[in-house]
Design a protein that fits this description.
The structure holds two protein chains of two kinds. In chain A, helix 1 runs parallel beside helix 4. In chain A, a hairpin with a 7-residue loop joins strand 16 and strand 17. Chain A is 15% helix and 29% strand. Chain B is mainly β. Chain B has no helices and eight strands. In chain B, the strands form two sheets. In chain B, strands 1-8-6-3 form a four-stranded antiparallel beta sheet, with no helix packed on it. A four-stranded antiparallel beta sheet of chain B has the order 5-4-2-7, with no helix packed on it. Chain B is globular, with a radius of gyration of 11 Å. The N and C termini of chain B lie close together (6 Å). Classes of the chains: A alpha+beta, B mainly beta. Chains A and B meet through loops of A and loops of B. Chain B: This protein is a component of the acetyl coenzyme A carboxylase complex; first, biotin carboxylase catalyzes the carboxylation of the carrier protein and then the transcarboxylase transfers the carboxyl group to form malonyl-CoA. Chain B: Keywords: Biotin, Fatty acid biosynthesis, Fatty acid metabolism, Lipid biosynthesis, Lipid metabolism. Chain B: GO terms for molecular function: acetyl-CoA carboxylase activity. Chain B: One of its GO terms (cellular component) is acetyl-CoA carboxylase complex.
């Protein structure tokens, strides 16, 4: 069974749960920006939770099916159509051989995950099908999908129509979006006033936000504690002697616009990082449109781990509901 | 009268570059597939093309402002 791509959308790519174990070599984990939504989509159609799906951002693709399959679309609210007929999001439906899946205008959120029964079965690269365009790994020849591509799938019939994720388990950002931050190793570089301002101010997602990093604008510029410039660090007060970056870490070049490193992150560099978005909130960032208002909220390690447990419990409830 | 809608969120531009003329002025002929405006998102400029032929009426929002998916960008008299 193949998926014929008639129109690819904006930057639609094949993603799974990522390429684990190569960050120390500079190759990021990649994978779905919103992993929760990808897992839910796969569960709805009866796939393994980590099967490869299509991740589409802001605009949906147009896809013709060569065989009948079960399909589910989760994440953002983007009207789903099968030969023009509207389908429910976060629910399974059947697309018959010869029918076309297409989408309307984005209503909320940023990214959809399209799971097809059997999963997309393009070749793995370093243990994952996730597309990492900068490293030309995974996906279709290491790139986003294009018109004319024919994507192979596992070709199973799947779990059938009518399975759904309860409203209370469809995780979406609030307005303003609330992103929890664990302050990090370089927090001491900020003045107390600047540290407080970072959490007080409302920020907005910048249009250049992408899979590598989500940039934010609109808060007060950060002020730094005076220092003697260490050997090997740049002259700007936001520079450090090069260090490792974590996923979710927040760098602020020049102290003006925070950038949260996301799934396709660089692994290190010379900017201080004030902390990191907690793992439980990384998925939410994947659903933020440009210009969305955002508040950062300070948490400690106990709160971060509790949030991770809460998110796991939500996934477990979906598993139970669909088992 | 038909409206040209933005297929995606981003920043709206009426010109191909800051120094250039607008894509369409009032009264200009519009053919199907003509570029009417740009929307910038994720470091990419997406050309917004007309799906109808006719005469350009006006832009509905200002150059350089944020837009949402589905928002009306311009009007064309068919």
């Amino acid at each position: 069974m193949t998926l014929k791509i008639k129109n690819p959308g904006l930057a639609t790519s094949i993603q799974d749960l990522g390429r684990i174990g190569y960050f120390h070599l500079g190759i990021p984990i990649g994978g779905a920006m919103d992993r929760y939504a990808l897992r839910a989509a796969n569960m709805l159609v009866g796939n393994d939770e980590g099967a490869a799906c299509l991740e589409a951002v802001f605009m949906g693709p147009e896809i013709e099916f060569t065989e009948t399959a079960t399909v589910a679309v989760t994440g953002a609210e983007l009207p789903i159509k099968v030969d023009g007929e509207i389908q429910d999001s976060w629910s399974s439906f059947v697309v018959k051989a010869g029918q076309t899946l297409s989408f309307g205008f984005l209503q909320s959120g940023a990214r959809i995950y399209i799971a097809v029964s059997g999963g997309i079965t393009t070749p793995e690269a370093l243990g994952s099908r996730s597309t990492y365009p900068i490293g030309a790994l995974g996906g279709v020849e290491g790139r986003a999908i294009q018109a004319g591509d024919e994507l192979p799938t596992g070709g199973t019939q799947g779990a059938g129509a009518g399975r759904t994720v309860a409203d209370s388990l469809r995780r979406k950002p609030d307005t303003p979006a609330r992103l929890r931050v664990l302050p990090g190793l370089y927090w001491h570089r900020l003045t107390d006033e600047a540290g407080a301002a970072f959490f007080e101010d409302e920020w907005k997602v910048a249009p250049e936000a992408d899979r590598m990093g989500y940039r934010f604008k609109g808060g007060r510029p950060l002020e730094f504690v005076d220092r003697e410039q260490p050997f090997g660090a740049g002259a700007d007060p936001s520079n450090i002697v090069d260090g490792c970056y974590s996923y979710g870490s927040i760098q602020v070049p020049g102290g003006t616009e925070p950038i949260v490193l996301h799934r396709d992150a660089v692994s290190g560099g010379g900017y201080f990082t004030l902390g990191a978005i907690i793992s439980a909130d990384m998925d939410l960032i994947g659903q933020l449109q440009p210009h969305t208002p955002v508040k950062f909220e300070k948490v400690d390690m106990d709160q971060s781990l509790a949030a991770r447990r809460d998110r796991k419990a939500m996934l477990e409830r979906i598993r139970q509901d669909l088992s | 009268m038909a409206q040209v809608l933005s297929p995606l969120p981003g920043t709206f531009y009426t010109k191909p570059s800051p120094e250039a003329e607008v894509f369409k002025s009032e009264g200009a002929a519009v053919a199907v597939g003509d570029t009417i405006a740009l929307v910038e998102v994720m470091k990419t400029f997406i050309e917004i093309k007309s799906e109808i032929a006719g005469t350009f009426t006006s832009y509905l929002i200002e150059d350089g402002t944020p837009v949402q998916a589905g928002q009306a960008l311009a009007e064309v008299a068919g």
